[in-house]
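Fold sample X.
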Amino acid sequence: MNRAVVLGSLQTFIRQRGVEVPSLTAHPAIELMVDWFRLVPIDGIAHTAPADTLTFRYGGWSEGCATGFKIRMQRRLELPEPGSTGNKTAVVGIALLFATDRFGDLVPLVTSSTDWRSLEAFVAAIEGSPGFLQSAAQTPSEVIVEVDETR
């Protein structure tokens, strides 16, 4: 099990749903990630905390001279490392990037859910957050599928 398998799982799910990633906005991106988390177990990973967690986060970002506001919905998985007693963490998800001028006054937010059977309260918290509310009617400047792997 590695991050390529997890990324492939998300990409397959996106294709099966007929979703065009560049056209996603906040609400459909959240729905897509919640459905993937709820409906698609990753082989060899317990569908329980802390092995499989869904995280929503937003805040400002900058890279070089570019700045913006980023919303991320990510699935964080603890992947067993063969021949080791440790795990690697793979983080795969969807990020929506927006222009800073619309979101400059928002305080960063991170919230997570580990219960795939009951995500309603988690989704309600996301949909009630200031960043989601401000971004819901906006078209992101860019939408990307992200993957990260750490030890």
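Fold sample Y, listed below.
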Amino acid sequence: MSVPHTPGPWRVSGDEVPECWIIENGEGDFIAQCEDRRGFVSLDGIVNARLIAAAPELLEALTVLADNIEHAFPALASLGPLTAARAAIAKATGAA
């Protein structure tokens, strides 16, 4: 089942309270919190928070890019990178 994600843009909140890296949308609604498995914020948590916050824009850009390539160069639709892009889009949207 595909359910739409919370619309972006998302941002990382936590610079003012470094132990609490929160991903929120433009209206301040909570999306996620990144911690390590012990419940502490670590460098991994910070970089993961940044990646998660960029997800809506990455998904949109990848979708537009894949659509444009397939439209302009239909013969490329079965090439590995475009197939991988479509698989990532499907995973992100729940279509996989």
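Sample Y note: The helical segments are 43-72, 80-93.
Also: Residues 38 and 86 are 35 Å apart (CA to CA).
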